């Protein structure tokens, strides 16, 4: 296990529902989820995002903020997995009501560790759902692959968009942008079974690895493909529709013009990074989907 978290860090929610959960062994799934977040933050250069080169379009967080955040939330991925595993009798949408308090408690641990900075709110939601789905599938001894994992996430989130449709509150960016433009953000991606990952980033990532390219090259290509296709509410929150169109069209133009972004010449990505910094645009949602991409590819490589 990369990080250990004091047992007292788990919330009362977990203690009430699963009092023995902290005595359960760390899972390989949680280690994989933690590694997926580390792979993402270490990848450099990521246009507009925090990486080892700079903080992208962020003046409130840096590389170390993400490391501290990952340390704080790492243990929670075990809790998500066991929650899915120990509630195998529940069907899809009933699971969401059980795990949501866990996710909110994990968000709290993140905010405490980062002094209130939102580093991984979306990642906790998306990767947390993946861990719940894996626990649920494994407990039921169902087939496990990237398709069944994402289908189980879609089943868990089958009613989640209702909260956007019926809610009058616009407390978060996601809720506000749904009312303004109809974007469903992280909720929509999960309810659709991470189709942006399944259709775009995962196939490209796996194909490049099979061709012998480095993990960095495969991850950079996957990120650019995600930025070209993902309706990232982080980008819209900062730059409106104009900002989203700029990110998607520029990413696609670079993919068309350069094909691959190889270590010997990453200039186009550094230039794109500076453009997004100048425009205060950050594709945080695509960064999360990149972690999901790496996780699904690695899980299958380890287990099939
Ligand atoms: C379901 C919730 C998580 C939804 O929260 P919210 O109402 O805020 O909805 P969204 O805005 O749609 O999404 C929240 C975060 O999800 C990421 N995201 C955005 N678009 C997409 C997309 N199309 N696909 C996938 N993921 C997406 C994104 O998160 C990442 O970016 C954040 C960091 O970037 P930054 O720009 O700094 O963000 P801010 O600080 O907010 O902006 P600034 O002030 O700096 O300008 C970081 O979170 C990354 O992860 C979106 O931010 C929520 O309602 C919920 O239920 N939470 C509880 C958890 C839970 O339910 N868990 C259960 C499963 S275990
Ligand atoms: N590296 C990163 N920079 C900014 N926002 C993010 N959200 C997730 N990963 C991120």
From TrEMBL:
UniProt-listed Enzyme Commission number(s): 2.4.2.52
Glycosyltransferase recorded as keyword: yes
Keywords attached to this entry: ATP-binding, Glycosyltransferase, Nucleotide-binding, Transferase
Coiled-coil residue spans: none
Reaction catalysis annotation: 3'-dephospho-CoA + ATP = 2'-(5''-triphospho-alpha-D-ribosyl)-3'-dephospho-CoA + adenine
Tagged with keyword Ion transport: no
GO molecular function: ATP binding; glycosyltransferase activity; triphosphoribosyl-dephospho-CoA synthase activity
Superkingdom as given in the UniProt entry: Bacteria
Protein name (record): Probable 2-(5''-triphosphoribosyl)-3'-dephosphocoenzyme-A synthase
Gene name as annotated: citG
């Amino acid at each position: 296990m990369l990080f250990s978290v004091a047992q007292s860090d788990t919330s009362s929610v977990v203690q009430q529902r699963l009092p023995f959960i902290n005595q359960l062994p760390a899972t390989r799934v949680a280690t994989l989820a933690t590694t997926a977040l580390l792979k993402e933050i270490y990848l450099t250069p990521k246009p507009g995002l925090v990486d080892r080169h700079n903080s992208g379009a962020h003046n409130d967080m840096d590389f170390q903020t993400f490391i501290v955040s990952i340390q704080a939330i790492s243990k929670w991925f075990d809790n998500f997995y066991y929650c899915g595993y120990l509630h195998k009798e529940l069907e899809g949408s009933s699971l969401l009501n059980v795990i949501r308090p866990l996710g909110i408690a994990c968000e709290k641990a993140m905010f405490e560790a980062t002094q209130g900075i939102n580093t991984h709110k979306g990642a906790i939601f998306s990767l947390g759902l993946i861990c719940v789905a894996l626990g649920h599938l494994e407990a039921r001894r169902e087939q496990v692959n990237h398709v069944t994992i994402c289908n189980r996430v879609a089943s868990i989130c089958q009613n989640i968009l209702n909260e956007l449709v019926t809610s009058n509150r616009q407390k978060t960016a996601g809720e506000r942008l749904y009312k303004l433009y109809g974007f469903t953000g992280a909720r929509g991606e999960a309810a659709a079974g991470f189709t942006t990952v399944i259709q775009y980033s995962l196939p490209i990532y796996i194909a490049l690895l099979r061709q012998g390219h480095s993990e960095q090259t495969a991850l950079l290509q996957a990120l650019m493909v995600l930025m070209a296709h993902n309706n990232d509410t982080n980008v819209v929150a900062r730059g409106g529709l104009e900002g989203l169109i700029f990110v998607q069209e520029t990413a696609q133009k670079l993919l068309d013009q350069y094909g691959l972004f190889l270590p010997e010449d990453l200039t186009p990505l550094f230039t794109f990074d500076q453009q997004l910094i100048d425009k205060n645009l950050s594709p945080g949602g695509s960064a999360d989907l990149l972690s999901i991409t790496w996780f699904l590819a690695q899980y299958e490589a380890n287990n099939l």
